[in-house]
């Protein structure tokens, strides 16, 4: 294991978050938030000092980094960066629990979005709301970049749903291949955020609200923790959020096809078709349960994107059957997006494979194949998807058991399990969450496991992985 390269990458990531803290400190200075100003400045100085020291002491790595080193860095990133980002939630608000502060940071950086604080007992300073927005945006960019580099290199999903022409292994070090994907992801993120921001501002929405909405939509998280409780009533705001959630759910691969003018490939892309079918299917089911057409579409878009943004009144959507509320986040959006869930591409591959098996029941000796993005899928690649599905089911069962042992009822336990693994904060039971530190610990592990896409965590449990 190339620990020198991994530590240097973690140090660089820490410095980026420290720069963001200074931006929040400036916002606190302008807003007259003295305590938050001190917290952000102090945390930035301390963490930057530690990062620079680690960067200098490790020195230049003597051997090239491998994809396995990238996997180790990805896992350490999701565990270490929340600790770096937690102090503002510990000392910038009325909070005496380190676990709650880390939980809040994990919720933001994994774009799950819910809050572990009582909404009626805390008055969020503007600088901390900005900090939440930055963490959601950084988390979305990190999620997409890791998927297009680390997961693509390891080919953990079988059919290569994370592959894109932006990534190719470097001859020198694996980490040398990441900047190109990172730059393109940042450009796409900036364009999507600006589109939503422009729609809302032109429609008369205040600038700060439009900015938070734009970041929340692209990251499929919640910059403002009250976003899953207050439905959107102004037309411009709802239009902007719908556009942003659709762009955030389609992912990097589909958006790049749109940007490069490959409209024929874009319209024929299996992820886009599965996304449209999922939205239509869940909207029809919601209409059967009593929602109006537009409310059904708004709920379906918000739920499939795993954002939890209340595009319609939460009172009406909470009346939907629990199974219907859990199903859309379990599917999630495109593979190269910030959404959680099993992902649309895997759903497409599995449905095509199941269809073939039904055909083979009548023609036992038939040879049937299908393509995913112009690549014929073999039995070996399909097996990778089945293994992922089994691992995901096992994670859901395990999560249901551990949340049950914390005293949660069945509905709350399964909602917390699916909500954390799919990074869908609106499913998590936040009513009694403050003060329940054991529940928060399990939620932290579930949210991180969801960002690792479950299967990527398994190699880390073997001693041979760390001895390489």
Explain what you see.
By secondary structure, the protein is mainly alpha-helical. The chain is built from 19 helices and two strands. The protein has one domain (3-331). Helices cover 66% and strands 1% of the residues. It has a two-stranded antiparallel sheet with strand order 1-2. α5 packs parallel to α18, α6 (126-154) runs parallel beside α8 (207-219) and α14 (322-331) runs parallel beside α17. It is globular and about 75 Å long. The model has no long low-confidence stretch (mean pLDDT 84).
What does the secondary structure layout of this molecule look like, with pairings?
Layout: H1 3-31, H2 34-58, H3 67-85, H4 87-91, H5 98-109, H6 126-154, H7 178-202, H8 207-219, H9 235-259, H10 263-268, H11 270-288, H12 293-304, H13 314-317, H14 322-331, H15 344-360, E1 371-372, E2 375-376, H16 379-405, H17 410-421, H18 437-451, H19 463-467
Antiparallel strand pairs: 1-2
Summed up, what is this model?
The chain is 66% helix and 1% strand. The protein is mainly alpha-helical. β1 (371-372) and β2 (375-376) form a beta hairpin.
């Amino acid at each position: 294991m190339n620990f020198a390269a991994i530590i240097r990458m973690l140090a660089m990531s820490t410095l980026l978050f420290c720069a963001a803290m200074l931006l929040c400190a400036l916002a606190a200075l302008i807003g007259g938030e003295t305590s938050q100003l001190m917290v952000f400045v102090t945390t930035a100085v301390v963490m930057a000092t530690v990062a620079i020291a680690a960067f200098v002491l490790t020195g230049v790595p003597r051997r090239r980094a491998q994809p396995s080193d990238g996997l180790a860095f990805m896992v350490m990133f999701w565990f270490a960066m929340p600790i770096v980002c937690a102090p503002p939630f510990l000392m910038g608000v009325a909070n005496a629990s380190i676990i709650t502060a880390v939980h809040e940071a994990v919720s933001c950086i994994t774009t799950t979005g819910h809050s572990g604080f009582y909404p009626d007992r805390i008055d969020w300073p503007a600088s901390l709301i900005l900090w939440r927005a930055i963490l959601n945006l950084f988390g979305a960019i990190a999620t997409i970049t890791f998927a297009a580099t680390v997961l693509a290199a390891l080919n953990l999903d079988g059919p290569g749903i994370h592959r894109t022409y932006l990534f190719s292994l470097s001859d020198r070090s694996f980490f040398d291949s990441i900047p190109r994907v990172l730059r393109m992801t940042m450009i796409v993120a900036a364009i999507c955020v600006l589109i939503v921001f422009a729609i809302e501002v032109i429609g008369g929405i205040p600038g700060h609200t439009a900015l938070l909405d734009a970041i929340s939509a692209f990251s499929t998280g919640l910059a403002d923790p009250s976003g899953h409780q207050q439905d959107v009533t102004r037309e411009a705001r709802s239009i902007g959020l719908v556009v942003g959630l659709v762009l955030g759910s389609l992912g990097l691969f589909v958006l790049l096809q749109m940007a490069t003018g490959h409209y024929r490939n874009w319209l024929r892309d299996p992820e886009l078709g599965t996304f449209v079918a999922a939205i239509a299917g869940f909207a029809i089911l919601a209409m059967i349960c009593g929602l109006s057409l537009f409310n059904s579409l708004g709920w379906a878009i918000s739920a499939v994107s795993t954002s939890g943004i209340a595009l319609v009144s939460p009172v009406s959507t909470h009346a939907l059957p629990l199974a219907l509320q859990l199903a859309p986040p379990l599917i999630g959006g495109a593979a190269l997006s910030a959404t959680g869930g099993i992902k649309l591409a895997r759903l497409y591959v599995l449905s095509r494979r199941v269809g073939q098996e039904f055909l083979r029941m009548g023609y036992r000796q038939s040879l049937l194949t299908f393509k995913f993005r112009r690549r014929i899928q073999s039995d070996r690649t399909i097996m990778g998807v089945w293994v992922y599905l089994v691992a995901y089911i096992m994670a859901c069962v395990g999560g249901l058991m551990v949340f049950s042992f914390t005293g949660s009822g069945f509905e709350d336990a399964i909602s917390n399990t699916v909500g954390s693994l799919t990074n869908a904060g609106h499913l998590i039971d936040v009513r009694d969450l403050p003060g329940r530190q054991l529940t928060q610990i399990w939620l932290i592990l579930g949210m991180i496991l969801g960002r690792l896409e479950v299967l990527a965590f398994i190699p880390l449990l073997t001693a041979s992985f760390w001895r390489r």
